[in-house]
């Protein structure tokens, strides 16, 4: 629970500030074990609802605001993600996983509409408009990729009870979308400081999309503080895990080159270790980096729109870690929590340097001085395909509750494409308990199932399971499905690569329900790549030629038998080929005769001479 | 032997056994033939010949009666019936001659009834003498109501009311346009009222000349529109002078495409972090709203505003030259995307920075060189950085007023005359423009469907065309009236929708190679025996007839 308090305290502190200032931004750097660094950028601006409805936009971006108004959107969440969060070594996710999406693009929104059809229509408008704004293929979120989650998502904003009745939640995923620079540029354009000043000046497509894991999030929700005017809040978040060694590569020479032999760090404990054989150690030295090195540029002052008393940059590392900053920067150490924040003078470049720490010698430092011990997540989840052949498939999800004494309750949601025909009767949950050590089939694990079956080419499967896992147990959730053979035109380009299946969304419901209902945390499995039986795409022409040949053979034979008359060989007309052969033979014999005669003449002449 | 060729074709299917059997029978029956040359097959039974003919006939019957219709049905493209000749008539201007009968009320209350009638008659004569363009003519009538202000408000059909009053001057008449109502006030010298008998009058000539000059711009614009449209020359009115045409074409290219609704976007761009707020709402309410309210019968407007900091213009130089102005807007970085909702967006950009426009010539006033208009897009105003982080409504006064005048010119409002006159002229100009546009779209659609016989025409296109023509008819008959603009607008929208129907272009290109690849594998092996069989049968049939005819 340390993780939880660590995140909740700053959030609560910030919550008080939300209303005071119209714009807020903060960067939190957190060194992770080995050579990883988590950088969390958070930008938040807001507008009063009255100004929003009058189309007067100040810090709230106009382009997005107009889309929201046009599509009747009350709350919007948009995610662009890439890579995989390595929960085993990095621990719990930033923001409790609420600010990340599955690989690709994920969008969910609450739309105000009288009927389901109207909501679908508005959803179409919304996806098309967002697609243009963010240069992403969001317009491909059609009926087959849209679901209406029942248990998984809850509105995060404050909505009136009257509007709540007419709000429709729609959720769509594009697992195949590759997130790249063209999505970052419009994202930065939405910020008031445009990436020209403040922490946003550190963002650069080259570094962001080179990260081991990254997630860009946009959350828009109405917030109604008690007794005050309602505001519409937009939060833009970028979280990324940088590989420090990788990001330190110089910009001009980005191609990784082999380390020269004498610089190689070898594991000398291996029996075969000598000067010619080396088992390289991946990571020995401590972390050593500066802001300039990992982001490729330094930070240009602060964004002047923020409250100058709020620190724009914080670093979460043990207080014993050496951190150097450029001159004029005020350091604020949090006595209760290993976090340091820096207040930066306006218009001055800011630099932060973490030198390498001695791991041997007199003042040796250990890993605990270098970075915080990662928090254990509430749940580990991994998902993979089972099954065999071109027809039978299966999915297995392994969910582990690492906690020694607390059970965990969550909703597991899958949005599957229609061409994965799942068999719900094969759904099984087997529990491997830590203490008993044996696998047993347990129906109690799954408490509630919401299932909406697929319709061919119209909608996908929606599966939501509410589950409860006892402490120190692992649940194997499996089900089988059948692979569909698609129509010729339904295969995407490069069909042999496979079809991406969206990540499963896990919403952990906290046991402590006395807190606000919004206290969720999320988790997403990685996406899957489904191989469907793929035809040879010259198939139509082959089929045409094959069937035509068969028809022609049958038809030709039948027709000739019916129409032709059979006569003796010597009675029929001469076959063209025979005529030709006779002619050739005649010509040849003629030539041969001439040659013979000429020979005889020569011989006769020779004799006379 | 020759019969064998016709009936048997190539005899490569002959089996040895049957051949020997036939040989034996042939040998016994025709010993003489065997000795002289190749053996003749025995004569065929007539029943066999008849059966063969039936076989060939029935194969062909199936192909023609079943195969062809199925092929035709499955590969034909749906083409809805379009009234092509009528559409082309519209495009050529044969269906409608745009004519604007403008009614002008003469309010001659100080005069006697017969004097007024007389003045009216003479002025109308003078007008008819002056006018050379039949499409646009002014018709005078006596004002029915005594109070001209009321008439102007209620009677929408009257384009202008002339109110004549006895003037102070003895020798010459003077006139002035009312600033808020379509009224021309004319003060006449007391002695200039024409008598019953006189055939000409100074006042009448003066009135005619005044009217002519008031409506000169409108006439020019309409004749310019007709001239640039696709209507052939014989239907066109007399040409306008090249200089006038040039200024008009400048005006026309500057103005936006007509739409019922426009989105107005006011953006404040600053080159640094300040200022970040402005009183644009109150400034618009105060300085622009009255004008927008006057335009409301013709256009609706939605307004949104935004503030954008750290904006770098497309041109960095301190003093902007005339060439720099076109690239000043940094389209790649500035979020000036058009508003969603279909209607066009007019952008008004206030840029706060220290750049100035280099005066093109010395004579230009200082305030002109702060702003410029970007044709069909909007307008830019360079504002000097204010002292604080806030831009007050007072600072924005000049800006908003400039934007207002730019908006009028972007909407294509004529330059001269009082505001109500300009707006009613705008109404008529836009009707004529839309009418011509819709007609030319219909013409293009008709030519397209004639030029591309393989293009599919869904029924929605036919519906659109019918609707468009119906509204064109209504617009044409009420030209100059208040409804014509609405009809012309619907007609134009329907014509555009029909022309840009998405499903028409889907199957536009279907390459011949593809057709060959699909048809040849089947038609080659099946078609050749069928055709050869038919040819042989025909040849045999002719031969048989000749043989029959020969002995007879």
UniProtKB/TrEMBL annotation, chain A:
GO terms for biological process: attachment of GPI anchor to protein. The chain crosses the membrane at residues 539-562. Keywords: Membrane, Signal, Transmembrane, Transmembrane helix. The keyword Mitochondrion does not apply. The keyword Nucleus does not apply. Residues 1-20 form the signal peptide. One of its GO terms (cellular component) is GPI-anchor transamidase complex. PANTHER family: GPI TRANSAMIDASE COMPONENT PIG-T, GPI TRANSAMIDASE COMPONENT PIG-T-RELATED. This is GPI transamidase component PIG-T.
TrEMBL record, chain B:
The chain crosses the membrane at residues 54-72, 516-538. Keywords: Endoplasmic reticulum, Glycoprotein, GPI-anchor biosynthesis, Membrane, Transmembrane, Transmembrane helix. It comes from Pseudomassariella vexata. One of its GO terms (biological process) is attachment of GPI anchor to protein. GO terms for cellular component: GPI-anchor transamidase complex. It is a multi-pass membrane protein. Pathway: Glycolipid biosynthesis; glycosylphosphatidylinositol-anchor biosynthesis. The lineage of its organism: Eukaryota, Fungi, Dikarya, Ascomycota, Pezizomycotina. It is found in: Endoplasmic reticulum membrane. InterPro entries: PtdIno-glycan_biosynth_class_S. Residues 27-48 are annotated as: Disordered. Pfam families: PIG-S (PF10510). This is Phosphatidylinositol-glycan biosynthesis class S protein.
């Amino acid at each position: 629970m340390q993780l939880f308090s660590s995140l909740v305290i700053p959030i609560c502190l910030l919550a008080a500030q939300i209303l005071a200032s119209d714009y807020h931004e903060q960067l939190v750097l957190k060194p992770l074990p080995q050579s990883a660094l988590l950088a969390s950028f958070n930008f938040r601006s807001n507008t009063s609802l009255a100004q929003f409805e009058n189309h007067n936009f100040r810090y709230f971006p106009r382009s997005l605001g107009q889309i929201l108004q046009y599509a009747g959107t009350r709350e919007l969440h948009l995610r662009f993600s890439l890579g995989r969060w390595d929960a085993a070594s990095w621990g719990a996710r930033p923001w409790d996983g609420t600010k990340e999406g599955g690989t690709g693009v994920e969008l969910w929104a609450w739309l105000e509409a009288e009927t389901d059809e109207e909501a679908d229509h508005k959803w179409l408008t919304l996806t098309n408009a967002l697609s243009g704004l963010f240069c992403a293929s969001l317009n491909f979120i059609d009926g087959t990729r849209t679901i209406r989650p029942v248990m998984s998502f809850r509105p995060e904003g404050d909505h009136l009870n009257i509007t709540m009745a007419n709000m429709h939640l729609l959720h769509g995923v594009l697992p195949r979308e590759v997130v790249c620079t063209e999505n970052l540029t419009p994202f930065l354009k939405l910020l008031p400081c445009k990436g020209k000043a403040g922490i946003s000046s550190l963002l650069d497509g080259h570094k962001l999309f080179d990260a081991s894991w990254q997630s860009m999030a946009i959350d828009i929700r109405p917030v109604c503080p008690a007794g005050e005017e309602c505001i519409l809040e937009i939060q833009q978040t970028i979280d990324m895990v940088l590989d420090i060694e990788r990001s330190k590569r110089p910009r001009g020479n980005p191609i990784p080159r082999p380390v020269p032999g004498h610089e190689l760090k070898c594991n000398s404990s291996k029996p075969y270790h000598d000067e010619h054989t080396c088992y390289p150690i991946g990571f020995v030295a401590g972390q050593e980096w500066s802001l300039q090195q990992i982001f490729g540029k330094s930070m240009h002052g602060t964004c002047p729109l923020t409250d100058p008393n709020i620190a724009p940059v914080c670093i979460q590392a043990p207080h014993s870690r050496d951190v150097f900053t450029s001159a004029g920067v005020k350091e604020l150490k949090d006595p209760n929590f290993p976090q340091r924040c820096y207040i930066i003078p306006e218009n001055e470049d800011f630099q932060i340097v973490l030198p390498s720490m001695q791991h041997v010698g007199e003042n040796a430092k250990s890993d605990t001085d270098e970075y915080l011990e990662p928090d254990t997540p509430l749940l580990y989840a991994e998902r993979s395909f089972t099954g065999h052949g071109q027809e039978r498939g299966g999915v297995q999800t392994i969910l582990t509750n690492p906690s020694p004494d607390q059970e965990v309750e969550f909703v597991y949601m899958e949005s599957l494409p229609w061409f994965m025909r799942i068999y719900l009767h094969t759904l099984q949950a087997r529990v491997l308990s830590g203490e008993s050590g044996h696998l047993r089939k347990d129906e109690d694990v799954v408490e509630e199932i919401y299932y909406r079956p697929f319709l061919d080419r119209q909608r996908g499967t929606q599966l939501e399971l509410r589950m409860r896992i006892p402490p120190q147990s692992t649940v194997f959730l499996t089900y089988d499905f059948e692979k569909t053979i698609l129509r010729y035109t339904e295969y995407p380009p490069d069909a042999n690569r496979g079809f991406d299946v969206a990540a499963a969304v896990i919403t952990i419901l906290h046991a402590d329900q006395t807190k606000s209902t919004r206290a969720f945390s999320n988790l997403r499995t990685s996406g899957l790549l489904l191989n469907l039986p793929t035809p040879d795409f010259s198939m139509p022409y082959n089929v045409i030629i094959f069937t035509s040949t068969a028809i022609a053979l049958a038809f030709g034979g039948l027709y000739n038998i019916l129409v032709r008359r059979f006569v003796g060989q010597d009675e029929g007309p001469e076959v063209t080929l025979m005529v030709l052969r006779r002619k050739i033979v005649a010509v040849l014999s003629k030539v041969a005769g001439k040659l013979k005669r000429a020979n005889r003449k020569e011989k006769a002449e020779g004799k006379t001479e | 032997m020759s019969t064998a060729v016709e009936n048997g074709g190539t005899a490569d299917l002959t089996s040895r056994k049957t051949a020997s059997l036939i040989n034996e029978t042939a040998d016994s029956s025709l010993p003489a033939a065997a000795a002289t040359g190749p053996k003749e097959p025995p004569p065929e039974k007539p029943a066999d010949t008849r059966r063969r003919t039936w076989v060939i006939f029935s194969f062909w019957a199936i192909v023609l009666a079943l195969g062809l219709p199925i092929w035709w049905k499955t590969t034909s493209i749906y083409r809805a019936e379009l009234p092509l000749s009528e559409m082309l008539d519209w495009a050529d201007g044969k269906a409608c001659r745009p004519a604007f009968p403008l009614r002008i009320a003469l309010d001659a209350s100080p005069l006697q009834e017969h004097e007024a009638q007389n003045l009216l008659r003479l002025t109308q004569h003078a007008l008819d003498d002056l006018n050379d363009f039949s499409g646009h003519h002014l018709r005078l009538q006596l004002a029915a109501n005594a109070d001209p202000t009321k008439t102007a408000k209620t009677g929408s059909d009257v384009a202008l009311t002339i109110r004549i009053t006895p003037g102070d001057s003895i020798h010459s008449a003077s006139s002035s346009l009312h600033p808020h109502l379509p009224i021309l006030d004319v003060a006449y010298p007391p002695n200039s009222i024409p008598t019953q008998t006189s055939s000409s009058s100074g006042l009448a000539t003066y009135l005619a000349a005044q009217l002519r000059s008031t409506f000169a711009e409108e006439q020019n614009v309409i004749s310019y529109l007709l001239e640039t449209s696709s209507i052939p020359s014989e239907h066109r009115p007399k040409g306008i002078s090249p200089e006038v045409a040039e200024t008009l074409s400048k005006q026309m290219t500057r103005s936006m495409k007509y739409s019922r609704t426009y989105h107005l976007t006011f953006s404040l761009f600053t080159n640094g972090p300040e200022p970040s707020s402005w009183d644009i709402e109150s400034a618009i309410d105060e300085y622009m709203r009255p004008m927008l309210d006057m335009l409301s019968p013709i256009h609706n407007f939605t307004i949104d505003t935004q503030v954008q900091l750290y904006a770098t213009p497309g041109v960095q130089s301190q003093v902007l030259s005339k060439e720099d102005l076109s690239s000043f807007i940094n389209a790649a970085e500035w979020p000036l995307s058009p508003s969603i909702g279909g209607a066009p967006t007019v952008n008004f950009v206030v840029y706060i920075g220290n750049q100035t426009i280099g005066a093109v010539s010395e004579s230009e006033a200082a305030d002109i060189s702060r702003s410029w208009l970007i044709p069909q897009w909007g307008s830019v105003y360079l504002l000097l950085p204010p002292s604080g982080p806030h831009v007050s409504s007072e600072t924005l006064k000049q800006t908003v007023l400039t934007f207002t005048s730019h908006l009028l010119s972007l909407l294509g409002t004529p330059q001269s005359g009082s505001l109500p006159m300009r707006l009613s002229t705008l109404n008529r100009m836009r009707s004529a423009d839309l009418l011509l546009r819709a007609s030319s779209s219909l013409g293009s659609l008709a030519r397209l469907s004639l030029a591309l016989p393989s293009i599919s025409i869904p029924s929605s296109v036919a519906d659109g065309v019918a609707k468009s023509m119906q509204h064109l008819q209504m617009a044409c008959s009420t030209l100059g009236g208040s409804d014509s603009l609405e009809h012309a607008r619907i007609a134009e929208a329907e014509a555009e929708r029909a022309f840009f129907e998405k499903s028409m272009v889907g199957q536009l290109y279907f390459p011949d190679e593809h057709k060959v690849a699909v048809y040849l594998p089947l038609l080659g092996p099946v078609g050749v025996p069928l055709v050869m069989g038919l040819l042989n049968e025909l040849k045999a049939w002719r031969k048989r007839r000749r043989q029959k005819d020969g002995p007879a």
